[in-house]
Amino acid sequence: MSTGWVIFIVVIVLGIILSNILLLKQSANMKLPDSVVKAIKDKKEKEALEQQKQLEEEQAQQQKNQDNK
């Protein structure tokens, strides 16, 4: 393989890496729409409620098991 092709491939790879880094920097400054923020908040609240319900069910099951002993 000639030296010219090696240099060409290295330049292409470095260009791709640099462009991805710049894209990440630019996207870090983007604002989320309010609808997306609200959807994320609602999902987290729903997951917290489900987790709390599951915890209460586990505690009730443990209490029932202790009462049966």
Strand content: under 5%
Assign a percent range to the helix content. Answer: over 70%
Number of domains: 2
Oligomer: single chain
Order of helices and strands: HH
Average pLDDT, rounded to a whole number, is 92
Name the structural class: mainly alpha
Radius of gyration: 27 Å
Put the structure in a nutshell.
With 69 residues, the protein is an all-alpha fold.
Describe the protein:
The structure is a single chain. By secondary structure, the protein is mainly α. It folds into two domains: 1-30; 32-69. Helices cover 88% and strands 0% of the residues. The chain is built from two helices and no strands. The protein is elongated, with a radius of gyration of 27 Å.
Fill in the keyword field for this structure.
69 residues; 2 helices; 0% strand; elongated
